[in-house]
């Protein structure tokens, strides 16, 4: 039994190497979102008492990554507005409605980068345009690069990022409630793994 467990551990460690954070070691080109290893959660203050937290279940993204010149990289991300998920199906329907996300008329929330700024060895600020409920405004993702590796399981190189985005919901006409009921600031947290478009 111990021999079988040792063999299983050996096989697993052979499939995934430790991630490296030096982007120059990664290949340039197009990367696609690994949807099984990505999430978008959001938080908003509720009555000033807590940070109400929920998520979106359907998202996609495309990254054109230039490790030699990270500032020249490009990011496009899309969230399906109707995939909002709070754990309360009735409230989900309310959020999909016209007073909130208006998912029928504006089914997608999108972010397209316009400029990338390197702020540290593994951090950056992705400036871009956020479109939500038909309104487009400048926005910035505060991003951390977790590293990259080659996975034999996926037969592709993989890279990972975390990012934070803060917006004012009133800028996008989201939500109609008396002042003080929920906060104006919405904090979005994104965790994303990308895979090289072509298997290696």
From TrEMBL:
Transmembrane segments: none annotated. Residues 1-18 form the signal peptide. Keywords: Signal. Pfam families: YceI (PF04264). SMART domains: YceI. Residues 30-195 form the Lipid/polyisoprenoid-binding YceI-like domain. PANTHER family: PROTEIN YCEI. This is YceI family protein. It comes from Alkalicaulis satelles.
